[in-house]
Amino acid sequence: MKSKLLNLTKNTFIQGGFFLTASSFIAGFLNYLFNIFAGRALGPEGYGEIAALFSYMVVLSIPMGSIVSLLIQKIGSSENPTEYAVAVHEWILQKTKKWWFVFVGYLIITPFVPQLTNLSPMSGYLLPLFILLSFAGSYYVGALQGLHIFFWFAIISIGTVLLKLLGAVLALNGLGGLPIVLIFLLISSALGLVINYVLYKKHVQKKAKHIIIKDHRIKDVLMDKQLWLTTGVTGALALINNVDIMFVKKVFDAEQAGIYSSWSLFAKIIFYVLGPILTMAFIFFSSKKHEIKHQIVFIGSFIFLAAIGVIANLGYGAFGREIVDNLFGPQFRSVIPYLEWAAYFGTGYTMMTFMTFYYLAKKSKLSLLPVVLFPVYLIVLVMYSKIIPDVMYISTIYTYAVIIIFLLVFFKDRFLFLIR
Prior knowledge:
By secondary structure, the protein is mostly helical. 84% of the residues lie in helices and 0% in strands. It has one domain.
């Protein structure tokens, strides 16, 4: 028994799960503090600005998210993961040098961003720079996870969030307001990129022995079906997670945008805390070695997520006023009547993401279900969102519609398998 436990602790997924889960709770807590301090320091209007900026960053970084997910899959399934990772890195550098003028053209649109997004000038001007940093760092994020270098990935995640938090702390103490928060966000992104590059050089590039760089054209890469499947799935999830905040920022006034952003934070705190577990689940479901356990883990994880949702709903319902007053302050009390819906949406979004990752890891077209239903969600959101609660209800109903379809297909396939 003791030897079995020792073997378990040496397992890559067990170790990685520990590091990612531990760092998740720490980084999630720090992110939570950042949002609280930013909300208290900037009020509903300023907090709505920060939340909208993050949403635009996430949505415009969808291609980078696809790169991360695809790298995790490709590196994990490669016979020589380290050599493969280095070859991909060199290929990216070659293509970046060749197509450098595209990035210059991208920066030309910067002056028009504030008008297009309804962001403040400073936030709008920094947005393209944040996207470029995200593009540059996406490879390293995917490579570190794909090569199971979870410890350093966890350390970097925590460190960058600490820097971001420092900006909110300074603003809370009256030093700089919104500009200081944005400056530290920029420092956090840039420093994270530098550290990731140093780790790549030390832990990946130096260990690679025989590297063959295939001269794939960008057109050839774009023909990869798995790339489009991954892009569609991660893109839909990112849009669902952020398009509501972008919509509210564009359509409603600044104070209402801030109130809705606080509701969104309370909803998605479940997703943020459990995020690394979802990533580990994706890696687990992508591994053929553990395929026999996939369905059992799927069912067990779904039950676990449902239990977390029930606890969150009861907590928000019983202590809503105390939670809002102690965290954001009296300025945000308008969100209290809708906190139980926040638990519904947060749980639903986390479940939907988990199920989507399951089918994406299986390379199933069913993972595109959120993509297929997203246009319907967007149309309903635009046409029927007359007040802020409408946005809350529509977003929640959409996530559970997707979950129900996923479950029906899963249990149908399970039933057909058992009767064979």
